[in-house]
């Protein structure tokens, strides 16, 4: 399906979107069967060479390869989240086809956005299962693409931790929307299902309780921090981008719960407006990002001051805007 990209008639597109919304409000299937816009999945066949061999186009049927089919389905959910909820087509907002490579490397324990495409390892089969398996991991990586084309947050220190956090925020939003869970019903975990069963890990990260996702001899303990008083200064991990992202992650989870309802509605609109509205730039720090979200909340909901108030309270809870 080549949505808007090749200019196919928009009536048909509108009709499909309406159908999808109706389905979501009634039975809320975890994955809409017609998810996605214009995806191309490639197979690296265990090499670390990109993009690899083209194996599944947008309109092709399932291949029977779990990683290929999960990558197709989950990147479709990411595409649809941004298209249907935030009116954004693909990572660049221009509907550019999305390339996704699976079976990258051998026992490869990661997934990433390389600046142009998504890439997924198969995991080592001892600790990590396939990185295509959890929906939210794919949405996290997709959102790195969105951030690159919008706020452009530099992947180092506080701006890097914000880049990481924005990816977790939209990952959580996508998961909650797929499950039909409100902010209060959600588990706020990222990467459930990524770890193999005997690993002492519930997930990769917890947005509501950063630092509590795992504690296993093979992994160590979840190093994420939950507030500014615990901010970690380090040279590793691009200045602790996956550690300090716990701080803005928790701010979003608290804001969403404080605002109430579904995270993909008012809270998601506020965070999306912040990253696309010009108030967040490549060098924005935590305090600047916090102000941008409060400004976005005020701008989007001028008649309901409680939204900006809940956003402010959430940031104060993690040690910002004090
Ligand atoms: N999975 C990691 C991430 O998206 C890969 C990386 O970029 N370090 O944050
Ligand atoms: Zn990331």
Automatic annotation (TrEMBL):
<keyword id="KW-0482">Metalloprotease</keyword>
<feature type="region of interest" description="Disordered">
    <location>
        <begin position="18"/>
        <end position="38"/>
    </location>
</feature>
<keyword id="KW-0378">Hydrolase</keyword>
<protein>
    <recommendedName>
        <fullName>Neutral metalloproteinase</fullName>
        <ecNumber>3.4.24.-</ecNumber>
    </recommendedName>
</protein>
<comment type="function">
    <text>Extracellular zinc metalloprotease.</text>
</comment>
<keyword id="KW-0862">Zinc</keyword>
<dbReference type="GO" id="GO:0004222">
    <property type="term" value="F:metalloendopeptidase activity"/>
</dbReference>
<keyword id="KW-0479">Metal-binding</keyword>
<comment type="similarity">
    <text>Belongs to the peptidase M4 family.</text>
</comment>
<keyword id="KW-0645">Protease</keyword>
<feature type="active site" description="Proton donor">
    <location>
        <position position="242"/>
    </location>
</feature>
<keyword id="KW-0964">Secreted</keyword>
<dbReference type="GO" id="GO:0005576">
    <property type="term" value="C:extracellular region"/>
</dbReference>
<feature type="active site">
    <location>
        <position position="141"/>
    </location>
</feature>
<feature type="domain" description="Peptidase M4">
    <location>
        <begin position="42"/>
        <end position="148"/>
    </location>
</feature>
<dbReference type="GO" id="GO:0046872">
    <property type="term" value="F:metal ion binding"/>
</dbReference>
<feature type="domain" description="Peptidase M4 C-terminal">
    <location>
        <begin position="151"/>
        <end position="319"/>
    </location>
</feature>
<dbReference type="GO" id="GO:0006508">
    <property type="term" value="P:proteolysis"/>
</dbReference>
């Amino acid at each position: 399906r080549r949505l808007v990209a090749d200019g196919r008639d928009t009536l048909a597109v509108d009709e499909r979107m309406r159908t999808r919304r109706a389905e979501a409000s009634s039975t809320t299937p975890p994955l809409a069967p017609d998810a996605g816009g214009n995806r191309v999945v490639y197979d690296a066949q265990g090499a670390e060479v990109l993009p690899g061999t083209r194996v599944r186009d947008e309109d092709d049927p399932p291949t029977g390869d779990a990683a290929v089919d999960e990558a197709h389905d989950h990147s479709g959910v990411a595409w649809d989240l941004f298209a249907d909820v935030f009116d954004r087509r693909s990572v660049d907002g221009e509907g550019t086809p999305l390339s996704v490579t699976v079976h990258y490397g051998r026992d490869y324990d990661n997934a990433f956005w390389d600046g142009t495409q998504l890439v997924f390892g198969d995991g080592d089969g001892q600790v990590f299962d396939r990185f295509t398996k959890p929906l939210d991991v794919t949405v996290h990586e997709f959102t790195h693409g969105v951030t690159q084309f919008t706020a452009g947050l530099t992947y180092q220190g506080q701006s890097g931790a914000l880049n990481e956090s924005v990816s977790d925020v939209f990952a959580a939003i996508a998961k909650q929307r797929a499950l039909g869970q409100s902010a209060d019903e959600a588990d706020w975990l990222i990467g459930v299902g990524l770890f193999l069963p005997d690993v002492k890990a519930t997930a990769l990260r917890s947005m509501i309780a950063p630092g509590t996702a795992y504690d296993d001899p093979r992994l160590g303990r979840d190093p994420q921090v939950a507030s500014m008083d615990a901010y970690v200064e380090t040279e590793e991990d691009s200045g602790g981008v996956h550690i300090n992202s716990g701080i803005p992650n928790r701010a979003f989870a608290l804001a969403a719960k404080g605002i109430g309802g579904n995270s993909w509605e008012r809270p998601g609109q506020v965070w999306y407006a912040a990253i696309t509205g010009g108030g967040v730039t490549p060098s924005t720090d935590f305090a600047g990002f916090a102000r941008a979200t409060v400004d976005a909340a005020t701008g989007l909901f001028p008649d309901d001051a409680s939204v900006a108030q809940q956003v402010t309270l959430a940031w104060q809870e993690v040690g910002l805007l004090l």
